[in-house]
Write a structure and sequence with these properties.
Elements lengths: L7 E2 L2 E7 L6 E8 L2 E6 L10 E7 L6 E11 L4 E10 L7 E6 L5 E2 L2 E9 L6 E6 L2 E6 L4 E6 L6 E10 L5 E3 L3 E5 L21 E4 L2 E3 L11 E5 L5 E9 L6 E10 L10 E8 L4 E9 L8 E6 L7 E9 L6 E10 L1
Length: about 325
């Protein structure tokens, strides 16, 4: 039978015993310290030497020394038993976990990193992060963190928690942390299209760079640059509500490049409209190193297909591994 004498048993355990009879075995009962755990009546395999198996959740018993007994019954009511002394060694200690960032009362915008500390006497297998009941993500290695793009979340107050698990399945949920999402321009008109004072509320990703007092603004002092670095990606985006009546997008762009080709689009910029959750709705235009110029030029597009909708407006670049192209943007407007 299994377990054998002296075995250490943990978690879910498959008890089994080989049993035979000149007439036939009707069942095998399994007992722990004389108390019935369950009965197995189906032999495996159905011919030849057969065994009777029962899955036992050993966490239902206290750790320490116990006796497991298998007793076989035949059709005549005869019973034969075998026993083994075993030791239960289950982990009943749950992990400890606490959110470390953001802190209580934080006002959040753009891309936020949510972090937690978690420990366990055996080990932490994963930490899952929640906004209310919504899963933000899961991390399986310390330090535990996920990225939360608040642009896809309505401006409001939320409670963040984290839940840590250990190999046994023990779990602990952290104390909640109350935060407020406040993305300027979220759910309203486009804000700070001239990039003056800061890049907020635009969210910048990858190699996108904001210049407060650069040498090449179209108007004012601020502007952004996308591309710039070989084999890199970059983007900027803002969550807006498109006006309901004859909406349009306009922006000024100045493209410079060290590419020498006059026929191949090695580096590209895409003007895109996405849902608030990040699904691409459409691409308004594509530009490349072939559109290089010596000064800013005005670009305009209709947004009628998205009138009245809550969307993300995104400028995104891809770069190949040869020479670099810089896409400068300024004075973006939606009206």
């Amino acid at each position: 039978m299994s377990p054998t004498a002296g075995a250490t048993v943990r978690q879910s355990y498959a008890l089994y015993a080989y049993a035979s009879d000149n007439v036939g075995v009707t069942s095998v009962e399994y007992l722990l310290d004389g108390v019935l755990l369950g009965t197995a009546s189906q032999p495996f395999p159905t011919s030849g030497p057969t065994y009777y198996s029962l899955t036992w959740n050993s966490t239902s018993a206290a750790n320490g020394a116990h006796t497991v007994t298998a007793q076989a019954r035949d059709a005549a009511g005869f019973v034969t038993s075998a026993s083994a002394s075993v030791t239960l060694d289950n982990d009943y200690t749950p992990p400890t976990v606490a959110l470390t960032a953001p802190t209580e009362g934080s006002v959040l915008a753009g891309i936020v990193t949510v972090t937690a500390d978690a420990t366990d006497n055996v080990g932490v297998t994963q930490v899952t992060f929640y906004r209310g009941s919504t899963v933000l993500g899961t991390d399986t290695t310390a330090p535990y963190s996920v990225t939360w793009d608040t642009l896809g979340t309505a401006n409001a107050s939320y409670t963040l928690t984290s839940k840590a698990f250990d190999p046994t399945g023990n779990a602990t949920t952290s104390a909640g942390v109350s935060v407020t999402v406040s993305n300027a321009g979220a759910g309203g008109p486009l804000v700070n299209g001239g990039f003056e004072g800061s890049s907020s509320p635009w969210a910048l990703f990858g190699q996108a760079a904001w210049f407060a007092n650069g040498t090449l603004p179209h108007g004012g002092n601020g502007y952004v640059e996308l591309g710039r670095i070989n084999s890199a990606t970059s983007s900027i985006e803002q969550l807006i509500t498109v006006p309901a009546s004859a909406p349009s997008l306009s922006f000024w762009m100045y493209i410079t490049t060290t590419e020498t080709t006059t026929s191949v689009q090695n580096d590209q910029l895409f003007v895109e409209v996405l849902t608030s959750s990040g699904t691409l709705l459409g691409t308004l235009a594509t530009y490349s190193n072939l559109n290089r110029g010596t000064q800013y030029s005005l670009r305009s597009f209709s947004l009628s297909a998205y009138a009245g909708q809550l969307v993300r407006l995104r400028f995104r670049t891809t770069m190949n591994g040869s020479l670099a192209t810089t896409f400068r943007l300024d004075d973006v407007a939606v009206q």
